[in-house]
Design goal:
Length: about 300
């Protein structure tokens, strides 16, 4: 299958491209020029907010499959630049759908949404794909809009579109703004003796689901191959932990035991995100997670430590 991957040079895109290639698919990447300074023969450059540029690329390559990853994934940006988040996450997704509808109408499509569409009310109640949507941030609202638009295209235009709602995913290569690599970067500096043995952190009592990005990428590929058009799939290993667990495991990986200090600038009220039920994904595609959270966190630390050397 010729598979167009938007955001191919991003954190998830690199892992997804590897998974698709290993399964025998031809990967065609779509990236912004600034994200792909060394384009290869399978790279195509355009901003997804430019409908004409996106349409021209899709018309040229006519993919058999598309996994739409490109977008703004850092939640705080939504509060500072809400219009940008809507333009990219909603408008960009629509540009992809319109280009495929016009030039590759039989293309199988996985539109990547987020578990945050469900909100965090009643956090002890797990969410399946039929649970109500209750977004609590600008970012999450943008994902709800893109998610539902994709499902409307599946119904109204008879396109083979599916939406994926993954829980938080971490792994090697994640941007340093995110929690796990930020912890790992401090610990690597402590282990190297370039930072005093003190960790400055926010609230460690909040509860989150975390999965390995490689397991999530594998789920996207299986959805593309085996998923049912017009359906939504949660992606989750159904394991939630406190942020303190993440820090403890990274400390073990680093072999250091720093003093923990609360940074008031990083502190947020304690909250808990509900876990997701992913039985439909398992049933329809045969997916199952491969990596334990402990292994993932060791790999995160090793990746950050190698870059620091």
């Amino acid at each position: 299958m010729r598979v167009l991957v938007t955001g191919a040079r991003g954190f998830v895109g690199r892992h997804l491209a590897a998974d698709l290639t290993a399964a025998g698919h031809e990967v065609l990447g779509l990236s912004r020029p600034q994200d792909c300074p060394d384009p290869g023969p399978s790279d195509h450059l355009a901003d997804i907010c430019n409908p004409d540029a996106v349409s021209a690329i899709v018309q040229k390559i006519k993919p058999d499959g598309c996994i739409h990853l490109a977008g703004i994934a850092f939640v705080p940006i939504g509060w500072k630049q809400p219009r940008l988040v809507y333009d990219v996450n909603v408008g960009g997704a629509l540009n992809i759908l319109e280009a495929l509808r016009s030039h590759a109408p039989t293309c199988r499509v996985v539109m990547v949404s987020s578990s945050l569409v469900y909100g965090s009310a009643d956090p002890d109640r797990p969410r399946d794909e039929k649970s109500e949507l209750d977004p609590e941030s600008i970012y999450a609202v943008s994902k709800v809009a893109a998610d539902l638009n994709a499902l409307v295209y599946a119904r109204h235009h008879n396109m083979a579109v599916m939406t994926a709602r993954p829980c938080n995913h971490i792994g090697p290569g994640q941007a340093p703004d995110f929690m796990a690599p930020a912890f790992a970067r401090q610990l690597a500096a402590i282990a190297a003796g370039t930072q005093e043995p003190v960790m400055r952190v926010g609230n460690l009592e909040s509860v989150r689901e975390f999965m390995d990005v490689r397991d999530v990428a594998h789920a996207y590929r299986l959805m593309l191959e085996r998923g049912h058009a017009g359906e939504t799939y949660n992606i989750s290993a159904s394991r939630a932990v406190k942020i303190s667990f993440v820090l403890e495991e990274l400390c073990k990986a680093a072999g250091v035991h720093p003093t923990i200090e609360t940074d008031p600038h990083r502190w947020r009220p304690t909250d808990k995100q509900p876990t997701l039920i992913a039985e439909k994904l398992r049933r329809d595609t045969g997916w199952a997670p491969h990596y334990t959270l402990e292994q993932t966190l060791r790999d995160v630390y090793d990746s950050v430590q190698r870059k620091a050397v």
